[in-house]
Design a protein that fits this description.
Length: about 425
């Protein structure tokens, strides 16, 4: 049996080997859009100032496009149809070209009125506007109550302690209070003028509602409403004049069609205008240029201006060209229409005159409907914007200011 001295210690055996997973050893190799674990947590976190700047740009872009480009184009189109209606077009031309049945353009207008549920759409828009206006009035009333309560409390304390001891400015003399009260007055004026505008829209609706109901009704009813005229032989001297007038009128319709497509393309360009990638690059550039300065939305002003000019300045500049083209075409239509009316005098068909007047009334009603829809959309936008203004610039500041004044009053009392 071996002695203890003869025994040798056993070599150390490694029972486990420490191995670092490759994901931990080289984490960046496993991160990325197409890597095993996707992008790193918070790698796409955007600074809050960039979020605010993005919102500012989008609001400014939408205001520029809608207010400075699309609205002038739509207003110009309304004036275009007003000019045609003053000439009795297209009714006088359609009555002569098609003495029986419905002109193709009128049938198309009636179909659009039916498909869009014109009467229901108008009534729904009016109800929406009434709700929005009531909500705006409620916000303003709340703000006025807050201001009135603060003023009443301040006057009571001034009466209690006397003007010599209660030396702080009155509610409407305080600088911040003056600003809030001024905003209240301004918004009140906006609401008063908007009510007058709403009433004008309602008057427009009443004026054409019976015609819209005819257009929205069955085709048989529309055919019965439009008087027919007897077929007459068009005098030979009148034929070329009709051709020229039809050509001039079609030129106007083509201008309107191009304008409509331009407005749709502009709206699509707005929807596709994603500023986020570019504004992140601009934010990175600003951080490199001014490493010790915190980035705020005001730093992006030049960037906004250059981008808006590059994307939308050509559309703004084209407005004058659109206006000149419209004036030229309307002048041409007026000239050929005078020649047409002069040549047509000798025909003296009473039935044709009645048909022309009815066709013109229906055509006017259709475009008046388009104008009313445009006005209602403007009204909805106005009240939505006013709601934000009333809450952010009046009610909420009034609450904060009134609370500050109460705290200040408590300190003065002590």
């Amino acid at each position: 049996m071996p002695s203890k001295a003869d025994l040798k210690p056993l070599d150390r055996a490694n029972m486990a080997i420490a191995k670092v997973p490759p994901q931990v050893l080289n984490p960046y190799d496993c991160l990325g859009d197409n890597a095993e674990f996707g992008p790193a947590l918070f790698s796409r976190l955007v600074p809050f100032s960039v979020h605010i700047a993005t919102t500012i740009y989008e609001e400014r872009r939408d205001r520029l496009v809608n207010t400075s480009i699309i609205e002038p184009l739509e207003t110009a189109t309304e004036h275009l149809h007003e000019g045609l209606a003053a000439l009795g077009l297209p009714g006088s031309l359609q009555a002569l070209e098609k003495p029986l049945g419905l002109p193709h353009s009128l049938a198309q207008h009636a179909e659009e009125i039916r498909r869009s549920d014109a009467i229901g759409r108008i009534q729904k828009s009016l109800a929406d506007i009434d709700k929005l206006r009531a909500a705006d009035v409620a916000v303003m009333d709340e703000a006025k109550q807050i201001l009135a309560a603060e003023e009443e409390d301040d006057n009571a304390l001034r009466l209690k302690y006397g003007t010599e001891r209660w030396t702080r400015p009155q509610s409407k003399e305080d600088a911040q209070g003056q600003k809030i009260w001024k905003n209240v007055q301004q918004i009140g004026e906006y609401l008063a003028s908007s009510l007058a505008s709403d009433n004008l829209i309602r008057e427009k609706i009443v004026a054409v509602e019976h015609l819209l109901k005819i257009l929205a009704g069955p085709e048989r009813g529309l055919l019965d409403f439009v008087p027919s005229s007897r077929r007459t032989e068009i005098p030979e001297p009148l034929r070329p004049v009709i051709g020229r007038l039809r050509g001039s009128y079609n030129d106007v319709l083509r201008l309107e069609s191009r304008r409509r497509k331009k407005v749709e393309a502009l709206r699509e360009k707005c929807r596709a205008d994603d500023i986020k990638p570019d504004i992140l690059k601009e934010a990175a550039r600003l951080e490199r240029t001014y490493p010790t300065t915190a980035i705020v939305p005001a730093h992006f002003e030049d960037f906004f201006e250059k981008r808006l000019d590059r994307l939308y300045e050509p559309d703004l500049e084209s407005l004058d060209k659109e206006s000149d083209e419209q004036e030229r075409l309307l002048s041409e239509v007026a000239r050929t229409n005078r020649e047409f009316e002069s040549q047509k005098k000798n025909m003296g068909d009473k039935g044709q005159q009645e048909r022309a007047q009815t066709l013109q009334q229906l055509d006017n009603a259709f475009f008046k409907y388009k104008e009313i829809v445009h006005n209602l959309e403007q009204g909805r936008t106005f009240y939505n914007d006013l709601s934000r203004t009333a809450a952010n610039d009046i009610r909420d500041p009034a609450k904060r200011w009134a609370n500050q004044r109460r705290v200040e009053a408590s300190r003065l009392e002590e």
